[in-house]
Design brief:
Length: 135
């Protein structure tokens, strides 16, 4: 359990530091990524492309991170708050104008051989849209 918790804490520390090399090194080669309210992708290459896209459109930091793991360390979950800035318009979403947002979010993980084998992210897309494009 402690190793799983440390892995997820390291994963988010690398994310917050913008250290994509370390961040991606914590994934299995066949990692499964369930995109919030979207598709399922598989493989480190697909995950890398996803992160490149995200880093182009958004600047984010996570705070108030709480990590939990099951007894055998094969699964973990995290809850956190995303502090973000919308940098460049993402296709199908409102126009980016440097808007900032604060969004509760969570993630679920499968862990295999000391690495993240699956990550499923969740946040409320409607809440995000309301924050960046209030009507």
């Amino acid at each position: 359990m402690q190793q799983a918790t440390q892995l997820i804490e390291q994963y988010y520390q690398a994310f917050n530091n913008g250290d994509m090399d370390t961040f991606l090194s914590l994934l299995t080669d066949d990692v499964v990524h369930d995109i919030n309210q979207g598709d399922r992708e598989q493989g480190k290459e697909a995950f890398t492309k996803f992160m490149q896209k995200m880093n182009h459109h958004y600047r984010e930091q996570l705070e108030n991170i709480v990590v939990m793991a099951n007894a055998d360390g094969s699964r973990a979950a995290a809850e956190f708050v995303v502090l973000g800035e919308y940098l460049n318009t993402d296709e199908g979403l409102p126009e980016a104008k440097g808007q900032t947002y604060r969004l509760p979010a969570g993630a679920f993980f499968d862990i295999r051989d000391g690495k993240v084998a699956r990550v499923t992210n969740y946040y409320n897309l409607g809440d995000w849209i309301e924050q960046v494009d209030p009507q």
